[in-house]
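Something for you to look into today, if you have time. What I am after is a single protein written out in full by you. I want to see for myself how the chain folds. Could you add the entry underneath, on a fresh line?
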Amino acid sequence: MTLQAMKEDEARLLREEIEMLMAERRQLLQVTGAAAVLVANLDVDSLPDELGTIDAAELLAEQLNSLSEETLRDALESVSAELDPAEYTGADA
């Protein structure tokens, strides 16, 4: 295999990897956006009093709040939802 052919093969593999990562990012943004919509619309009083359920809801809310505003906005846009700046308390990074 020539050097040129090896470089072309490496470039093709890199392109394929980038495409795969971008597709995975889109899917993760959709999951994150759906989770953010769920948390935003969740009535805390309707949660079961089970500690595991409450801990899971808190963990999800904490992780969503730790996202940068840009990432959260991308996630919400991926599920056609909008960010309400008055309710956003995450970090700007």
